[in-house]
Each structure stands twice: as structure tokens, then as C-alpha cells.
């Protein structure tokens, strides 16, 4: 045979193999479709989520640097002039008046939980820092007495166009009518506090005393955001700037933080799906080769080389991949488009086309290579089969050829459907493996989602692990009264309270870490604790709490950025002095996105002998009522003590947690829907495989319900097995998995809490879900006609 | 010097001194206050002592004003501050007796428009809660509502914007706002203004003819303006801005020792003044009955850790085994303390021409301690140290700032523009070396000196203020390269001004230097007599005009007719007041239409100086123009010219 005819033969055999094992081929196809779909969707998400923000930034000509300052402190012309001279700068938007509303604005008698920077929308905003109107009349500026609010503020607080927001001013509540909800590139996320709202140009003087109108905003738009660090460093060398600065990467990271976490979760899941696909394909191929044993011997006897035999299987799987991949990729395009469209819609972008070439190319390439590799590795043993042995020997026994039909009939006494279910389950191990894996994945994701969601929701029971003080109540002393309590007096009083177990005073402070060879100078916020940090549950990932005046603990990302470990030293500029601290421990703290430091009170007292803490973390004895103690504090300490909102009571935290939980719910639903498809398909294939048997059972008197129930039992057994493996596996693997994802925001060890009841509930829920899915799909049993089957 | 001051303080706190029984009580009291006068840094004060319903001693000590020889007498009128709350309570109790007010009725019965942002809570506030400080309304008012009969109404309207965080009646929170509302109830129910009510139903029947809340009477009564806190003495103060909305809480009431003697005598006599029943004993008892408690002075602070109770406009304390009814009061530059000892039918008031409440109590005996020991003196008991801290001043330290570091702190620091103590708003701090090379600070509100102190550094960036007042913390913002960029003084942020800051401003004098202020150099100004007009040379459509003229903030139409012929007013903003520099400015913005174009204008009126400014811009440019010209301009407005 010449090469050309050999290749032709190989191709014909490969196609014939596919047709010969059509069910197996379909299974391989589905496996590739689903894993490719998940992988491509994740890649698409990761690639796509950046685009809307960047496109939004570009379309709205948003400033990459925003400066906020008092116009009497800074020379606006000088600063703007300097920026305009820099080659990196495209344009500057200056003299934008704004006012930070100090008291919450009122909507329908309730306080808005976000502070608002009321900013005048000037003609200059038509060029730079443009605003996109989502709802409301499209016009150049808000009218007098009107306000444009960001869409997230409207959505989160149920504010409608035409509603009135009361702005607290000296004369009461100044009414501002919401005339539009808008998208503002820098403030597109509700996680920013204060957020920004827009009012008519020149209108702030209509309701604010001119003495308070001292603040200006300046926007600097660059050719590229990558230029920010070097430009900002030069600016600080040239100017003694005292105002605030916010920049592009912060806006972007805050906006994308939520989507990034979800994408990372999906990426982990898609990698798991690929590994599963590899396993399934390899196992199926091995089974195929075993059953083709004699046939392969015949091929070889006819002159096929080992390479030719391997090529048959590689080609067979590649053909399946080529057919399946477009379906998976098409599905991923639909999913990704749907997700990104909702994101895009939320920020008002239209006609935004995403290029999925990259994800499609990567997915196609990766899966083709993977399939080729798996089939090549898996079929090498086929190449090694000796023709004489193979032809003489019996063909490998098919896994479902064994067993005695009479054995089954003998046992059709009381639990016919159960036995039938077990029989069909054992009949096709490969498909069981595949369906089982899908079940396992869904169970894993459900348990993962339930417990991660629970861990977020129960933040208040596990505060220290998140980096917060694990206290029941936090208070501070009111210094703006005639008879304020002194720190020492308060400590004496509070420690004698019967309900109080521990009090640890603490304060915030700020330190500067000087520039080093490869790092710019940075300002870091930290906390000083006048007491044993362990008393309020604080822990370190590594090392111990700082105890002496020359010791400091660093927050995870700060330590990582500085390349510091416990035992190292760090020079910081604190309280006007340069001090070198020994680093005793590394801790995690999400509150400052993983950055910061902790100092013992003695360290601060050495730098500032008059240092006094501002806050008090109070832990009550077991069984004491927090609400009663708060009431007691108000009654006894009256105005001297101010009770702070705890972290879990803050609306921004609550809404973020709610968002995270709904996303996990969506991911779970996505996987459940995939599982439903798999179960449905599995049931159909099972019916197809056993249609003859089912026809016979019908003739001997089994009802369709009994036959359907046999399929349900089959799946129940498989589900129980998967639950037995999947639930413990999820409980074991979830913590390291989520920790890997959250380490980027300062949580190297995610505070994982198990929701026992929820996790247990997964068991009946999955049984019910799989049972119902199979029951629905098994309706096809009703179509089986014994008469037709006998005729066939 | 620190040791000397502690010795002076100890003159009053050494227990064991027993006053001789044979000496004439009047002479002993006189001697006691002469000693007090020698020891305290107050330029002057007056006292009144009442026993069994009769004034047994009243006298003034020292001078009315540093630099003047005019003696402080029993008839000298000074600000009594929050003692006014007891007058407000008395007035309400009179209306209760007349069955015009019920203490436990909700406030909305008398002020139907009253509400906060959460109406469900504000509807529960009762009249009693206003008087016993449990209304949950916040302590002070940060805005200023002018000094007219409408101020209280404006205050009430402004409360719509606040959110009550606590359930009314649940706990104690000292509230000037609540007493102001009580004042408004008095006005609504009686049909006359609060100040008229006090005059008609309290001052007149009680013979308090040196007491008033009417600024028009201040000149006639030659009321004092008090003193600020200086290095080792007071600094004579100019009249500070007083807000009308806080009159019932104590912002305006002037009174004298002699008048307070009448007041205390009536309270001791069961409410009877010259056979006239001003108030029933039952009402007095109600006012002096504990309603709610709050933490008192701790042992370290010189107390005994016992709770203080609040009645209705009065505080009640158990001090050294006696029940005392008392109330202090302080304004920025003056203060008072009044204590009644009902069991022994004794009462006394002391009125200072300095805010003695802010005096360093580690160095000087407290107002409460002075009167408490007066009672011991009368009872021929040993003096005690009640009210004097028992622990050393925790801010004392031995840190010495290296001379090489001192220069970086020198310069001018300007109030950062928001937040912090209201006393320090619009204040400028000048830091300079004194002859001893110590760093001294002069705090000025525009051109008026309001405080002077030296800085006692506790490390390279932290210091405490040292003068006759309580030490305040100072924290400097220093960059790693050693550059000082600002400071926090007593929690209020200040920014260090760069030396070339004023180069963009020029001095403009109007009306033969009658008014002068700084103006941007890029503006061109023309002056015609006592009027001026300026245009922005970069954008001539932006103008500022003004000058001396009596004008009401409501007279927009008239002004438009005069200054903006053919313009039609199309929209008016909120009418507001705001303090800039040392002055209260009224402001109102409005839109006009002219030849199809819309213009924005801001009218600023200074009532006291009869001066106005009108800033006009094309639509959209008003705030920016205001920011460029207004603040510096108004902060530099000359107070001397106003006085003239």
C-alpha cells in the first residue's frame, strides 16, 4: 500500500469507528463541548471584562489622574500648567468645583449610605470626563435644582427619575430632583465612598455657603495609564502638593474586583473540567482499544504499521474534537456574550464588540493538542499489539456483554426497578464514569458555593480571620462635649463592667515607607493596639504579634511587595521619625486590601508620649447580650461614648457580600444546568442502549413507571456514591482553592466556615435534582413499543 | 515655671485650712475672693452669694478689660452662657403652670412643622425631653441662622436634614439645639419672641435690669466682650459673632452678679419675688429633680466618679455628701458658674470675663471648686480639692526639640476649610520664634488675635500648647524629606501656606480705605467713592461690584434694577448665612435672563458693615468665579472699618 492509500484507509477506519460506537462518540463529543465551553467562557470573561472599562474610559475621555484639593492651598494654574508641559499628558480638566456632602443625603426619609461629592458639570466635561446618561432626558448639563446620580446609587437605593434627594444644608433639606442616572467612568463602582453626582454648572452657590466652597477637582488625561507612576513621581518632586490623588488603576481595580474574583473561580473550575475531560477521554480510549484488540491485530496483519494504528485513534478523536469544539466555542460565545452584555449594559455601553479570537484560538489549539496528545498516549499500546496474538485471542470482553439475563429475571421479585437500575448502572462503566464526574463537579461546586457564601455571610462570627478586631462592640470617646471621659477613666470604668470580658484600645496611624532602589515611596495605614492583640482574636499567618517598642507586624501584601518576612527589619517614617522595626509576624487583613501594619502601643508611646487610642474593641462574656450592653452604654455613659457601626453592619460591606453570594448562586445554577443536560442525555442514551431489554420487560408485565424508576434508582446510586466522594472532597479542597483566589486582595488564608445544615442539605437536594431530571428524561421509555422491537 | 504654677494652684486645694468662726462672714467672703482674684488668670470677675433668700454678698474683682482701669463690678454685664438654659426651663414651667404647655406632650403639638429626616422618631420628642437633654437632637448647631426673630424658625427648618440616631428619651445628650426649640415653643405659645418673653416675664418682674439678650442694649449696658486665652493672661477680645438661633441655649444672654442675685433669691424663696409668684415651688422642685444621669468627674479629674443628674435646665450632683444644683455656662470669651445648695438655703454665682471653663485646671482651681469652697467657707468647713485633678498634667514632658528642627515649623498656617472645632474655623496660625527661641503661636481670626501660646514639643512632630488654657495637642504633618506641610491643632486641620501664596492677590481699598480686601491680581478694579466694580481680565463677562449700602438680602429685584438693567430674575436659590473671617455674611444666588442669555449672580451682604457684593457671570461660571475672588476677599475685610 502506498502512503496515500494508507492514509485514506486510516481515515475511513476512523470514521467507521466513530459510527460504530456512536454513543461513545457522542459522549466524547459532549465531554469536549462542555469543557471547551467552560474554558473558552472563562478566557472570554478574563479577556472581556477589561474591555468595557477601558472602552468606557476611552469613550468618555476619562481622566487617568484625579486631584482633589482646596483652591487656597494649591495653585491651580501652576499645577495644570506643569501637567500640560509633560509629554505623557493628553489634556487637563481644571477648575471643577465640588462639595462633599458631610451628612448623608435623604431619600424618602432614609439616609443614603454612600457619601456624595456634588460636582458641577461644566462645559469642559463635554470634552474630558464626559458623563453618559443611562436613563432620563439626554441634555448637555443637569438643570438648576437637578442632580444626575450614578446608576449604581439609583439601583441600590431604589431611586427613580423624578425622585427628590434632600441635601442637608443650613436651611433644611435642599431638594435636588434626580433628572438622570448616569455612568461616570471613575465612579462606575458602588464600592467607592464617596461616590460622585453631578449638578448644574455654577449651581453650588445656590444652596451652599460660599465659605464652604473651597474644593476643586482637576483631571489629567494621559496618553497611556502606564505613565502614571513616573509622572506622579516627577510631579511630587516639582510640587509640594497637599491634596488627594486618585488614579486609573484604583478605579479599574475597584470596578473589576468583583468580576475578577468570579473569573478566577471560573478559571479554577474550568481547569478542573479540562482535567476531568482528559481523564474521561483517556479511559474511554483505553476501553476502546481493549475491545478492538482483535481488530487491531487484523489491521496490523494487513500491513498497518504501529504508527498507522495510532493514527487511526488519534484521527478518530481529532475528528470528534473538530466537530465538538465549534459547538463548545459557540456555546461559550453565547455565555460570555450574555455575561459581558449584562456588564456592558450596566455601564451603558452600546455597540461594544468583543473580539473572542484569542480565547477561541487558545481553546481550539489547547483542546486539539490535548486530544491529540491523549489519543496518542492512549493509543500507543494499540500500536504495540502483536497481530498473531491478537487474531488468535478472543476479543476483549465488552463490559456490558457479561452477566446473566436469567440472574436478573430470578431476582425480579420485589425490587425489580432497583435491581434493573443497578444492572443498567454496571452495564456501561465509561458512561457511568463520565456522568459520575459531572455529578462530582456539580456537588463540589454546590458545597463550595454554599460554604464560601456562608463564610462571607458569617463574617461577624469570624472577624479576626478577615483581619478585623473580633469584638462585640466598638466604641470611641466623644471629645466634643463639656465633660469628656479620659482614656484612663474609661478604661477603669469599662473593665469593671460585669459583662465585659476584654477591652483592647486601638488607633489608626500612617507611616511612610521610604523609596528604595526599585520601589517608589509609599504611604501605608496601620493600627496601634494598646493591649494584647490575641485578646481580640487577631492572628498572624506567620510569626507572632509585635510586643516590644521596636517590633511591627506587616500585612500580607505589604510584606510581599517589600519582600519581607518575619525576622527581617524595615525602616519606616512614622511620627516624623525614621525608625527601624523588627518584623515579628505577617497577618492578613481584607479591610485595607491586604496592606498595612500593626504596632504595639508601646512603640507609639515611644514615638509620641502623648499618644492616646481612639477606639475600644470590647468583647463581652459568653451569653451577654450585645444589644442590652449597647443600651447600658447609652444609659450609663450617655454622650461620652459613641458606639461605632460594626463591620458587618456597614451597608457597603453588606451589599458586596450580597453580590458575592448571588454570583456564587449563579455559578452554581450554571453548573446545575450543565448537570441537567448531562443527566438528561445520559438517561436517553441509557434508554437507547437498553431499549431491547426494556421492550422485553414491558412484554413480561413491567409498567413504564417501574422502568422509569429503575433509571431513577440507577442515578440515585450513582449520586450517593458521588456525594460520598464529592462532599468531603469539596470540604477539603475549597479552603485552599478560595485562598488561592483571594490572596490577591490580602486573604492568603480564606476564613472558611462550614455551613453544616446547608452542606447536609446538598445530599437530599442532589438526590431530588438528579431523580427529577432522570424521571423527566425517561419519559422516552413510554415510546418503546415491544412489538416494534420484536419485529426489528 | 511649671513648678511655680502648680504651687499657685495649691493655694486653693490644700485641705486643712479652717476659716475662723469669729470673723465677719462678709469680710471672710471678700478676703476669699480677693485671694481667688490673685491666683486666677481672669482679668476680672463678679460674684453673688445668696443665703436664705437674701443676697449676702455681691462684688466685682479686677478690671473689665485688660488695658483699661475700669473695675469689674457687681453690675457689670457679661455673657452667662448655658445658665440661660435654666431661664428657658423657668419660662416653660411658667407656661406649664398656665396650662399652655404640657411637659410630656410631643413637640409637634406646639411646632407642627418640626421634624427631622426620620419623622417617626422626631414625632416622639416631648417638651420634657428638650429640657432634660434626652431628645437625641445633636449637641450644637454648626450653621449660623443670623440674629433675627426668624433665627429659631430657621433652625427648626434646618433640623429636617438631620437624622436621629437614637430613640428620643433613651439617653442623655447635652443639646443646645433642644433648648433652642424649647425657646421657639415659648415664642409660639406666648405669641411674643423669646427675648421679649424673658424681658416681660422674668427680667422685669425679678428686677434684673442689667440683663438682656438684645444686642441693641449691649451698648447701653456696656456689656463686656471678654478675653481670649493668652500666654499668661487674657487677650482682650472684640465682639464675636453670636448666633440668634442659640439664644435660648445661652449664646446671647448678658447678666450681672447683682441680677443673678435676684434670680437665685427667687428660686430660694419658692418662686416669689416681691410678693409676686413667678413660679410655684412645685415647678422649681420639678426643675431640680433628677431626670437622667451622665458620667461626672472621675477621681483623677478631681471628682468622686459619681454620676451627675440632669433635671430641667439644671444639673444635680452629690458632692461631698451634699446635694448641689448647678449649671455652668461659657462662650468663646466669657463664662459663669452657678451653684445652689438647697438644703442650707445657699446659692452663689461667679461671672468671668474670660472663658474660665478652658483654663488649665492643673494650674488653676476650677469655677466649681471656687464656689464649692465658698460654701465650705460659709459653713466653716475645711476647703477641699474637689474639681482639681489629682494626677499631674499628663502632657508634662522633658523632651527638647533640637534647635536645628525648629525653623521648619515657622510660617503661616491656614484653616483647611472644613471640619474640626468651630472655634478654630477661619483661623490663621502664625508660628515664629520668641526671644527665648521657643516657638510661639499666634492664632488670629482675620486680624483679631484669639489665642497665643508656646509649643511644648513632645517629639519631633508633636507638641502641646502652653498658655493659661488647658493644653491642646498639635500634630505636624512632616514629609520624610523634612518639609512641614501642615498641622492638626486640637483635631482641626491647618495647611501651611507657601511664601508666595499672596502673590496672586492685590489689596483693594474702597471708600477712602474704609473697606479693604485682597483681590486677584488678574482682575481690574475701578473705584467710585464707596462703590467698586471689577472685571476678570481673562474673561470680562465675569464681574464683581459692590460697596457700602444698606441692603436686605431679599431686595433682589431692586438690586437687579439698579445694577443689572433689563435683566429678569428667573430663579432664586436658598437664602443662607455663613461666617467668613470675623463676619457673618448673608448670601443668595439667582439667575437672570438678558437678551436670551442666562446669567448667574451671587449677592453677599454684610449687615453690620452695610456692605454688599454682587458677583455676576454667564451661566455655569458662578462657583468658579466665587472661589477665585470671594473667600480671600471676605476674609481680609477690615473689621476696624466695620466698627467705624
Mean pLDDT of chain A: 83
Class inferred from helices and paired strands of chain A: alpha+beta
- Sheet with most strands of chain B: 8 strands, antiparallel
Low-confidence stretches of chain B: 1-22, 638-644
The CATH topology name of the largest domain in chain B reads Beta-lactamase
What is the number of domains of chain A? 4
Proportion of residues in helical segments of chain B: 10-25%
The shape of chain B is globular
CA gyration radius of chain B, whole angstroms = 26 Å
Which percent bin holds the helix content of chain A? 40-55%
What's the number of extended β-strand segments of chain A? 22
Largest interface: A-B, 80 and 94 residues
Q: How much of the sequence of chain B is in beta strands?
A: 25-35%
Report what the structure shows.
The complex is a heterodimer of chains A (792) and B (644). By secondary structure, chain A is an alpha+beta fold. In chain A, 52% of the residues lie in helices and 17% in strands. Chain A is built from 24 helices and 22 strands. Chain A is elongated and about 100 Å long. Chain B folds into three domains: 2-378, DD-peptidase/beta-lactamase superfamily (Beta-lactamase, 3-Layer(aba) Sandwich); 403-496, Lipocalin, CATH 2.40.128.50; 502-643, Protein Transport Mog1p, Chain A, CATH 3.40.1000. In chain B, 24% of the residues lie in helices and 30% in strands. The two termini of chain B are 42 Å apart. Residues 1-22 and 638-644 of chain B have low confidence and may be disordered. At the A-B interface, strand 2, strand 4, strand 8, strand 9 and helix 16 of A face helix 6, strand 9, strand 20, strand 29 and strand 30 of B.
